[in-house]
Amino acid sequence: MTKLEFSTTTKVKLGRKAFFDATALESVTSTMGFESLGDYAFEGATSLKDFNLTFVVVVPTGCFQKCTSLYSIMGMMYLTTIEDFAFMDSGLATIHLNTAMTKIGNYAFKGTSLSSLTLPNKITDFGSNVFEDVVSLDMVELSQITAIPDSTFSGCTKMKSITGADKVTSFGASSFQETSLSSITFSPSLVEIGDSAFQETKLVTVTLPETAIKTFGSSAFEKIETLTSVNLGGNINIPSRTFFGCSKLAQVNSFDKIVIFGAQSFSNTLLTTLAFAENVQSIGEFAFSNTGVTDIKLPFSLTTIGEGVFNGCANLATVDVNGLTKIPKSLFSGCVKLTTVTGFDKITSFGEMSFLLTSLPKLNFSPKLEKLGDMSFMQSKMLTEVTIPKVADFGESVFREVQSLKQVDLTQNTIIPNNTFNQCTQLSNVSGSELVEIVGKDAFKDCIMLNALNLYSHLTTLLDSLNSLKYLFFHGKEAPKIIPSDPTLSQTIKIFVKEEFKAEMFGGVKVMKLGCNETQFVDITKDTPMCTNCEKDKKSVDGNNYFCEVEVDECILKHEKCVLCEQEKCVKCADEYVLDKIDDKCVQECPSGYYTEEGHCEKCKEHYITPCETEECEKCTTSGVFGTLVVSVILYVLLIL
């Protein structure tokens, strides 16, 4: 059956799914018209070409859904309500909505073929996704509509203009997403822009009202690749991803009013200058990543700054961190032109990858440094030397692949973590290793210019195979307990030890002893290494060294086993010795009442006999009182007596 005509004396009522999936049906008419239609009455009637709705007040749910050949609807003069899915995915190309219409349900015209549209003024119930994916729709008249629901025109890719937008006070989430809208004038009474409302449109400029938007969703203008300028109006809070991916956005007016920047709010834009307000409170993660900024001055008012805020800013050259003491993860990662950071010496914590791939020529670390996160300075381009203060949280790969790095001073650090100097191909000198206890895996891997390294008696764990090292000078009496196993210690390395070292092997490698004295050094520039006298006024501490590092003056001569003096007093003793500050001399064991702390003797609490292992003296190394528990028991007994 392709045609059906009702010849009746009264209006026809069609029940629910009356002609559901009637794929051959092309025409349905009634001499007296239709009084009502049931839900899904013609759903799937793919051959139905037109229909006359005269006298019909309500088009029910899904009534003409998937009627792909239905191009026109006549007789809508009595129609007041169109329910959910009523014409969804039909072939409807033209429609003239009754001016008295009060309701259009969810998805009512989604996926149709409408090309133009005028909305009635009296709609009070306007559903979501009503015209979603109407790819042929290019012109819309909003009349007096003040609220556009979620996804109303989302995916209407040909829509270039709308009339009446200046009356709208609320734009729902994704309401115009992926349209071709090129311009819009916002109402001064605008109170809401929902999430992704204008995402991936074709807007060129955006001017927000001078009154702050009360409900401002995320990603509102995300990925508008045509957008060149923005006026933020009276807004002080820019939500996350608001202008993310606006790849031509170079000008932002009223930027200096913003107090809170959401995550990725201006990421991947062309911004070159950032004039922050003096009262900025928060900058979210990656807020300005991959922008064109060249210099930055962070305000003192800043209380929160997220990860990666300036990540990938390839033109950023100078930064003033203005009292910031903690640098979050990836904050300046990939800022390849960054050479100057004012306030660097006040920073106590560097997050993971915080300065990865930057060009800082010098690092003036704070003496209060607490953290160097994983990869924090990895692949830096200009760094030639670095002095690392003692740091409690020393991450992995901190200076990995810094191929310009030539000289390192470890000062008081006890750990060289995994991959710390891996592939630092110009590194030739490492000093300050006297207190190192642990050398991590691949810490010095492929440091091809590092011929020699000093390690001392504190060493307990060696995990690096030292694959490119030619000479290891070990100053302890016995090899560390943990030696690299996968891979094993390089079998080509020459290991020099002191006379006190009794074993013949060190990690499977035969050791060498030349017996040089403290005024000599091992000359490794010769084909066969040999003892060579130090220059005048210099010595090598114990003779087992490849250079003479100690400047000999009256203070050094006066203090046996002292290697460093300041103001005529010894401040550092040779390996295996500690500084007794009271008697101003180097000793092998602190006197009674003192314990060893970082190379010198510190006084214990009065009720303990020492030498002790810690300040609290939980245990004593010789015949003393064993801990606070014992003392407490003794005092308790005395009180009872």
TrEMBL record:
Alphabetized InterPro entries for the sequence = Furin_repeat, Growth_fac_rcpt_cys_sf, LRR_5, LRR_dom_sf, Surface_bspA-like
Name the chain's protein. Answer: Surface antigen BspA-like
Output the Pfam families linked to this UniProt entry: LRR_5
**CDD domains under this entry?**
FU
High-level lineage: Eukaryota, Amoebozoa, Evosea, Archamoebae, Mastigamoebida
Q: Which residues form a coiled coil?
A: none
Q: Which SUPFAM superfamilies match?
A: Growth factor receptor domain, L domain-like
Q: PANTHER family this protein is in?
A: IG-LIKE DOMAIN-CONTAINING PROTEIN, SURFACE ANTIGEN
